[in-house]
Amino acid sequence: MTPSVRRTPRMLELAGAGAAALLTLSACSSSSGSSNTASDASGSTSPELSGTVTVFAAASLQESFTALGKEFEQRHPGTKVTFSFGGSDTLAASITGGAPADVFAAASPKTMATVTDAKDAAGAPETFVRNQLEIATLPGNPGKVASLKDLTKPGLKVVLCDKTVPCGAAAQKALDASHLKLTPISYEQDVKSALNKVELKEADAAVVYKTDVHAAGDKVEGVEFPESAKAVNDYPIALLKNAKNAETAKAFIALVRSAEGQKVLGEAGFLKP
């Protein structure tokens, strides 16, 4: 039989104090738990990248940007990257004319200036790669083209990019530096169109970028020329002011400029900025 314990006023006072302490600890624990829960909830609701990013990019970026677009979509499920490739001058005119786009990657600062001068860029463009010219000839080089001067041979069918296009402006700069005059059979609106003339055997040679010769594989043969060093193009990229998906667009630009992005571009033949 358990002996009864007589509770004195002092004992009751101590018991009451202990109960109050327990209630205080419980309240603190509850408050701490609520704070952590709120913090966790805040972290879990941080916005994730989603939606479509529309990128206007120079034609010479087609292969490398397409690969980077796929990589971006894999890293960020729920996103989609759509591209419009073409001559930088045409793309710039489309942007200033109101065409919806989030990112512009141009093949020269001059064509990017069309967009920035119109106040259609959000912030200053950044150069992410450079590109150098090369001569593309038919496989086996039957025209025996070994220099820029050889493109002036009578009867040789040569194609250039239009002078308003960065690759055409660079080619003209190289020709002027060499004091050479060349009359092509056609001026093309972008570098892929110029290269295509050689691939289809409609021309014997075209002045394009190293990256385009690289992408064409055995469809053409590349001929380097020293004058190309005087006409290297910087490629700037910029977020556009009216971007509908700015945060995701910024993330795509970050990928392009990252070490991973630079590796893809470098493997395509682009030079570091």
Automatic annotation (TrEMBL):
<dbReference type="GO" id="GO:0015689">
    <property type="term" value="P:molybdate ion transport"/>
</dbReference>
<feature type="signal peptide">
    <location>
        <begin position="1"/>
        <end position="29"/>
    </location>
</feature>
<keyword id="KW-0500">Molybdenum</keyword>
<feature type="binding site">
    <location>
        <position position="60"/>
    </location>
    <ligand>
        <name>molybdate</name>
    </ligand>
</feature>
<keyword id="KW-0732">Signal</keyword>
<dbReference type="Pfam" id="PF13531">
    <property type="entry name" value="SBP_bac_11"/>
</dbReference>
<comment type="similarity">
    <text>Belongs to the bacterial solute-binding protein ModA family.</text>
</comment>
<feature type="binding site">
    <location>
        <position position="88"/>
    </location>
    <ligand>
        <name>molybdate</name>
    </ligand>
</feature>
<dbReference type="InterPro" id="IPR005950">
    <property type="entry name" value="ModA"/>
</dbReference>
<dbReference type="GO" id="GO:0046872">
    <property type="term" value="F:metal ion binding"/>
</dbReference>
<feature type="binding site">
    <location>
        <position position="209"/>
    </location>
    <ligand>
        <name>molybdate</name>
    </ligand>
</feature>
<feature type="binding site">
    <location>
        <position position="191"/>
    </location>
    <ligand>
        <name>molybdate</name>
    </ligand>
</feature>
<keyword id="KW-0479">Metal-binding</keyword>
<protein>
    <submittedName>
        <fullName>Molybdate ABC transporter substrate-binding protein</fullName>
    </submittedName>
</protein>
<dbReference type="GO" id="GO:0030973">
    <property type="term" value="F:molybdate ion binding"/>
</dbReference>
<dbReference type="InterPro" id="IPR050682">
    <property type="entry name" value="ModA/WtpA"/>
</dbReference>
